Amino acid sequence: MMMMESRSHLVVARVGAKSLHREWLTGTGPRLWDLQLSQYDDHPGFEHDGDLPLSKDKGTKWDSISRLFEANPGLLDRYRYIMLMDDDVRLNLDDMNRFLNIVDAHDLAVAQPALHPDSYFCYPILLRCAGLRLRYSNFVEGMAPALRSDHLRYVLDWMKTYHSGWGIDRLWAVYMKDPSFRAAIVDEVQMLHTRPHGTGAVYESFHQKSVDPRSDMAKLLSSYENTPDRMLVYGAVTRGGRALNGATARLWNGTNLIANAWRYRSKRYVLRTGAGMLVRSVTEAGYRPKPILTTSDIAV
C-alpha cells in the first residue's frame, strides 16, 4: 500500500503473525489516517500493508515506538494525532475515522475508544457506557491510545526508559499544566480486545529482556507527586452533546456497569467497580485531576 494523499493522523501498530490490523482497513472510507507498522516477529508479508515503510524491531512496544520516532522525527510534525495500537484489537476503518474525529473535535491530549462488552479487560472503567459520546477520565490505557503529537513528544522519554510501559498510562492523562477535560474514554466508538491480558508477545519480550514491569511502574510513579491513586471519571458528554458534571457522569457510569454486569467477563469485579462509582458520585462529587509535579516544562 502506498501513501497517496496527505492525512492528518497516524496509526502506529506493533504487529506479528496474528495481527488484526488488516481489519482496520475495511470500511467505506475515505481514510483519515496513515498506517505505520512496526513488526516484532519474522512473519512475512507485511511489507505492503502500511502507508509508510515497514519498521522491524524486536523490542517491547514502548521502546520500539520510541526508536521509531527517534529515527523519524518528522512524523511528530506531520500528524496531529498519533494512535499507538496493539495488534489484537478489533476495529474497522469507519470506527477509527469516527474516533479520531471525536478526539480532534474535543481537542483532547490523550484518549482511547471504549471497550466492547465482550472484551478481555483489566479495568471496568474502560468498558463502553451506553448513551455517552465520551467520559473525561484521569486514566487512559496503553492498549490503543491516541495522543496529540505535541503531547506525545513529552512522554516519549518514558517509553524509552521504562520498556514495559507499566505506569505510563497512569500519568499521561495528568502530565499537563491543567489536565481537566484533556483526557477521555470515547464511548461512541468501541473496540474489541480479543486476547487475555498477560498472554501476548510483549509479555514474552519482558521475560526475554529481563524487564520487570512492576519495578518499572514503581520507579516511574515515585518520580512524581499528585499521581492519581484511583481511576476516576469526572465528567461526560452524551451522544446528543449534553455535558454532564462529575457526579452525574459517575452515576450514569456506575448504573450502566451494574445493569450490564451479566454481560461482562469478571462480573463481580464489574459490580464492585460500579458500586464504587455510585459511592464516589457523592464522596468525590467535585473531583478534578491535578497536574503531576515535575521540574520539566510542560507545554500542553
Secondary structure elements and pairings:
Layout: E1 9-15, E2 33-39, E3 55-56, H1 61-71, H2 74-78, E4 81-85, E5 89-90, H3 93-105, E6 110-115, E7 132-137, E8 146-148, H4 149-161, H5 168-171, E9 183-193, H6 201-208, H7 213-221, E10 233-238, E11 243-244, H8 246-259, H9 267-283
Helix pairs in contact: 1-4, 8-9
Summarize the structure.
With 300 residues, the chain is an alpha/beta fold.
Could you explain the architecture of this structure?
- This protein is an alpha/beta fold and 300 residues long.
- It is 31% helix and 19% strand.
- The protein is built from nine helices and eleven strands.
- Strands 1, 2, 3, 4, 5, 6, 7, 8, 9, 10 and 11 form an eleven-stranded mixed beta sheet that branches.
- A hairpin with a 4-residue loop joins strand 10 (233-238) and strand 11.
- Helix 1 packs across helix 4 and helix 8 (246-259) runs antiparallel to helix 9.
- The longest helix has 17 residues, at 267-283.
- The chain is globular and about 50 Å long.
- 45% of the residues are buried.
- The model has no long low-confidence stretch (mean pLDDT 92).
